[in-house]
Each structure stands twice: as C-alpha cells, then as structure tokens.
Design brief:
It is a single chain. By secondary structure, this protein is of the alpha/beta class. The chain is about 35% helix and about 15% strand. The protein is built from 5 helices and 6 strands. A 4-stranded parallel beta sheet has the order 1-2-3-4, covered by helices on one side. Strand 1, helix 2 and strand 2 form a beta-alpha-beta unit. Helix 4 packs parallel to helix 5. The longest helix is centred in the N-terminal third of the chain and has 19 residues.
Length: about 190
C-alpha cells in the first residue's frame, strides 16, 4: 500500500474528498510509489495498492484518482458509513438493513467503486470499515453482514478495522482479542 489516509491534517478538508491540489499531489505520490517499487528487481508484477486522497470513498476523490499505467494495481479505500452509526459514539447504535437511510451511503460507495474500478478491471479492497462498540453487538453484526455481502456481490473485499480496543483510545472497533486469540464478538 502506497500510503495510509494521505490528507490535509487539521484543515476543513481533512476527512472528506480534499482539494483538487491535494488530490493531484496524492496522484503524484501514488505514481512515485509504483515507479519506485517497479524499479526494484523482483517487483515487476507484485500487486500494489494505491489510495485516493484521505483513503476516501467519496465520489469526487474517486473520480480524481489517477490509476498508474500498470496491470497489477489495486485501489484501496476506507469506508465508515453511515458516520453516525460507525463512528459517533453519541449517535444511535441502531442500524437496520431495511431502512434506506441506513444503507444508502453504503450502497452508493459500492456502486461508485464498481462503476469506476471493478467494471474497468481494477480490483478494489475496502481496507478499513467497521463500527464502534456501543453495546450494540446485534446491530453491528447486521451492519457487517450487509456491508460485506454488498461488497462481495460486487467483487470487492473488505477488512474490518480492529484497533485492538485500547482503552486509551476513544474508538473501540476491536472484535478480536489478540492475547487470548479469540473473538470478542463471535456474532
């Protein structure tokens, strides 16, 4: 992977699609990454992951992503949608696949990734998705099932962001206890 969430830290553009200038810079970094790796013997066909500005799955960030001229590129994005359910610990912990308000952003992300990349032969990995633990395991499980099922039906792989559940962090995405080697939430 070329970079993790390259963005304008501390600005109004940090966690969205960024600015045109910032997106151009990320494209240059991605190309530099591909050129550097391809310049090392033995890495001529290695799969390389590139990311849009901020790792964003926003349509504008995806539209401005320039894919290097290389047959072994994978696009990777992060998708924490809908934000209220996935990140905001003060928002509702309820999620329902039968509620269009709950699924709309997920469906749009998948559709945009499919149209821009999958339909053009470019593999995609959603390298981070998930929802914080709000004592709502049933709803998180339903969310994960829906998200992964929709992605999989469009040939997109997903990876749940597991931050280890460290108490010093505000976010609590852990689903696996590494020291005990067991799932915290088997559901």
């Amino acid at each position: 992977e070329s970079m993790n969430e390259p963005r304008l830290v501390g600005t109004d553009f940090e966690w969205n699609e960024g600015t045109p200038e910032a997106r151009k810079i990320v494209n240059k970094y991605n190309q530099t990454f591909v050129d550097a790796v391809r310049g090392v013997a033995g890495n001529e066909t290695r799969y390389l992951m590139i990311t849009p500005y901020g790792g964003a799955a926003d349509k504008e960030a995806l539209e401005d992503l320039i894919i290097p001229d290389d047959e072994n590129i994978i696009v990777t994005v992060h998708a924490y949608k809908p934000y209220g359910f996935t990140h905001d610990e003060n928002a509702t912990g309820v999620w329902d696949s039968g509620n269009a308000d709950d699924t709309l952003e997920i469906d749009m992300i998948i559709a945009n990734l499919r149209a821009k990349f999958i339909d053009n032969g470019i593999p995609v990995i959603i390298g981070e998705f998930g929802a914080v633990d709000k004592n709502n395991t049933v709803f998180r499980a339903k969310y994960a099932k829906y998200f992964v099922s929709e992605a999989r039906s469009n040939n997109i792989m997903c990876i749940w962001w597991d931050d280890g559940g460290k108490k010093k962090k505000k976010e609590r995405f852990a689903i696996f206890n590494r020291s005990k080697k067991e799932f915290i939430f088997p559901e």
